[in-house]
Amino acid sequence: MNMSTYDKSQPGNFYAVGVGPGAADLVTLRAANLIRSADVIIAPRSRMTEESLALKTVEDLIDGQEVIDHVYAMQRDIDQTMELWREVTEDVCRRLQQGQSVVQITIGDPLIYSTSCYLLSLLQERLPSEQIHVVPGISAFQSVASRFGEALTIQEDRLLIMPATNLAQVEEALEHCETLVLYKAGKQVAALADLLDRKGLTDRARLVCYVEQPGKEFATTDLRQAADGRHGYMATVIIHIDRQEWKTSNP
Ligand SMILES: C[S@@+](CC[C@H](N)C(=O)[O-])C[C@H]1O[C@@H](n2cnc3c(N)ncnc32)[C@H](O)[C@@H]1O
């Protein structure tokens, strides 16, 4: 049970907390302690998803904290997106003023394609930095890489992370790194398979959907196996393009 009775004379703190890819035992100790002791947990989820994966991941740590199930629409328009998060910012600032401790949980890491990025940037305009904290989480690409045990980078290799949404940009990126990580790959798998065939990189892709989700996880080295898109939004692809030539001495 969360026994926190917050001190109204002191402003509270905000924590953007990464809870990892979805497995309870990949939540860091720091994240778990903050979630347990928080007054309020904000659990964002898109209107398209029935439940918050982040909240499900930490459900065993919820006992008495107020939980705000924050449903948001997926927006491409940055102004509309920021408008939505401005409302949340107002609410967070009001709660902090009352001395509450507010934790926003997010899947993976809070600084990688996360709603925390919007909230953090707005809070940073309003609050002193001492009141704002970020707790890193294991990102999806790290978990996906762990499924295959292949190095992401060695020595001088470049690692590039981007969404799979714009295929022309993906094609260009293949020329600028040794390892390419593609988030939001769900709907693009078939087109990615075509692109890699064209580039002679067919056997270099690794795909995992719903990594760390028992009963849902699907991993393959053959993109065609997931090309029908049935595995959904939670799909990450790693393309091992090449290696930089190893340097024999320091520059
Ligand atoms: C909004 S981003 C969240 C990224 C997250 N903050 C992170 O650090 O991993 C959603 C994308 O993350 C990736 N993702 C998140 N969780 C995943 C999982 N359990 N399995 C595979 N990919 C995942 C997918 O590429 C998905 O489209």
Core attributes:
5-stranded parallel beta sheet, alpha/beta, 5-stranded mixed beta sheet, 251 residues, binds S-adenosylmethionine
Task: Describe it.
It is a single chain. The strands form 2 sheets. The protein has a 5-stranded parallel β-sheet, with helices on both faces. Strands 6-7-10-8-9 form a 5-stranded mixed β-sheet, covered by helices on one side. The chain is elongated. Helix 6 (167-173) links the parallel strand 6 and strand 7. It starts with 13 loop residues before the first strand and ends in an 11-residue tail after the last strand. The longest helix has 20 residues, at 78-97. The chain is of the alpha/beta class. Helix content is 29%, strand content 21%. Bound molecules: S-adenosylmethionine. The site of S-adenosylmethionine has 25 residues, from helix 5, strand 8 and strand 10.
